Amino acid sequence: MGRGDKKTAKGKRFKGSFGKSRPAKVAVVKKAAKKAETK
Q1: Where do the TM regions start and end (predicted)?
Q2: What's the pLDDT tens digit per position in 1-39?
């Protein structure tokens, strides 16, 4: 467990990815989804 493990928050930070253990900014994602829905 650690930097190389994508299942941990530290691993996600190291890899630069998002997911369950390190979600992207929720408010921004919801706003973008809502904007796409209205178009």
Answers
A1: none
A2: 778 888 888 988 999 999 888 888 876 666 777 777 776
C-alpha 4/C-alpha 8 separation (Å) is 9
What is 1-39 written as a DSSP string? Answer: --TT-TTSHHHHHHHT--SSSS---HHHHHHHHHHHHH-
| Exposure letters 26-36 (e unless 16+ CB within 10 A, then b) | eeeeeeeeeee
Residue 28 confidence (pLDDT):
66
- Name residues whose C-beta falls within 8 Å of residue 12's C-beta, 6 or more positions apart in sequence: 6, 18, 19, 21, 22
